[in-house]
Amino acid sequence: MYPKIIHLDMDAFYASIEKRNNPSLKDKPVIVGGLPNKRGVVSTCSYEARKYGVHSAMPSAAALKLCKNAVFILPDIEKYKKESRKIFEIYKKYADVMEPLSLDEAFLDVTQDRMNIGSASETAKIIKKEVYSKTGLCVSAGVSYNKFLAKLASDMEKPDGLTVITPKKAPAIIENLPVEKFFGIGKQTAKKMHYHRIYTGKDILNAGQKKLTAIFGKHGNLFYSFASGHDLRPVSDFRERKSCGREITFEKDISDKKTIIEIIKKLSTLVSDIIKKIKVRPHTITLKIRYYDFHTITRSTTLNSPFFSSEEIFRLTCPLLEKTDAGKKSIRLLGISASNFETESCFPKQLIFDFNLS
Ligand SMILES: [Mg+2]
Q1: How far apart are CA 282 and CA 337, in angstroms?
Q2: Ligand 1 center to residue 236 CA distance, Å?
Q3: Catalytic residue positions, numbered
Q4: How far is the CA of 99 from the centre of ligand 1 (A)?
Q5: The domain containing residue 31 runs over which residues?
Q6: Could you tell me the distance, in angstroms and rounded to a whole number, from the CA of residue 12 to the centre of ligand 1?
Q7: Which pTM was predicted?
Q8: How do residues 95-154 score in pLDDT, each as one tens digit?
Q9: 154 Cα to the center of ligand 1, angstroms
Q10: Are residues 62 and 91 in the same domain?
Q11: DSSP letters of 15-80?
Q12: CATH number (domain holding residue 44)
């Protein structure tokens, strides 16, 4: 028997809460995020705003240019957290295990059907109804036999969608899926795939495991198994922290190198404090820089032994700064993060060795 997994993703979560709370915003393009004149960034926008090409992570000033009648609202995270808790309480009733991904997204494992509903798609339908009746908010649901496909499904008919990907339907959907949409394939990996003329799920399968592992190492097997429709990652309520760090957006762009180094020093102390507080043993340090033109880059180093102290972090980060154009170009954001923790494995081990789904 296949597992039954539901992925739930609230539609334009923050913006929808603001709209619900203030009926005068109905039908208006609402943008939750920083203000355009304060160098803010869009956090969530309503579907009315999306029609103008506005999307999350875009500078609010650019969003305002696209959508002149947008209503900007500063985020109130506490309010959204409260709403999120309410919604997750509903989910928990129906699932054996719930894995939250963020305030507005979660996976449910409903294989056991604890409410005796009969099917996962019916369960998703009931959950959607209950969320709407208790909160007035819409959630999109994706139902499938693994996490990769369930998440893919929830995105297919947004907003207010309910999409089921059955084992029968899966191969055709994956075949045409751009590699960027696969779990674990970020921008860099996608670039590398394109270089090897791998653009879709079908191309991944055609490349074969041998070629994929030659290019991507052990992750090659993983990509192959996803393209075959297999994903053995369990829904798990234990979420491992993958990285920790701090970043600062400046009020004004900075081009003075001395000032930048001073900021790195301060951030090193902050990051060291977090590392000690959450008791992790990181091996990788990453410097993130966003230039004045929003072009963002990261530079990182991985060490054989873990680091903890602010001095170490500072000493590791300074050479990374040399690999950037900071100083030549002015910068608007600087961040340092630590990752690659000792207990962490990038993917559950069983995925790498076992890709038969029975
Ligand atoms: Mg969402």
Answers
A1: 10
A2: 20
A3: 105
A4: 15
A5: 1-167
A6: 5
A7: 0.71
A8: 989 999 999 999 999 999 989 999 999 999 999 999 999 999 999 999 999 999 999 999
A9: 10
A10: yes
A11: HHHHHHH-GGGTTS-EEEES-GGGT-BEEEE-HHHHTTT--TTSBHHHHHHH-TTPEEE---HHHH
A12: 3.30.70.270
Q: Give dist(CA 334, CA 321) in Å, integer.
A: 10
What does the alpha-carbon distance between residue 262 and residue 271 come to, in Å, rounded to a whole number? 14
Single-letter code of the amino acid located at 174: I
Cα-to-centroid distance, 330 and ligand 1 (Å): 33
Pair (112, 206) in one structural domain: no
In this structure, which amino acid lies at residue 339?
S
Would residue 314 count as lying in a domain? yes
The 3-state secondary structure of 247-292, one letter per residue: EEEEEEEECCHHHHHHHHHHHHHHHHHHHHHHCCCEEEEEEEEEEC
CATH of the domain at 202: 1.10.150.20
Longest Cα–Cα distance of the chain, Å, equals: 65
Could you tell me the distance, in angstroms and rounded to a whole number, from the CA of residue 219 to the centre of ligand 1? 28
Residue 358 lies in a domain: no
Query: What is the whole-number distance in angstroms between the Cα of residue 132 and the centre of ligand 1?
Result: 15
Q: pLDDT tens digits, residue range 254-310? A: 999 999 999 999 999 999 999 988 888 999 999 999 999 888 999 999 998 999 999
**Number of domains forming the structure of the chain:** 3
Q: What is the CATH number of the domain that holds 322?
A: 3.30.1490.100
Q: CB–CB of 35/42 below 8 Å?
A: no
d(CA 42, CA 36): 9
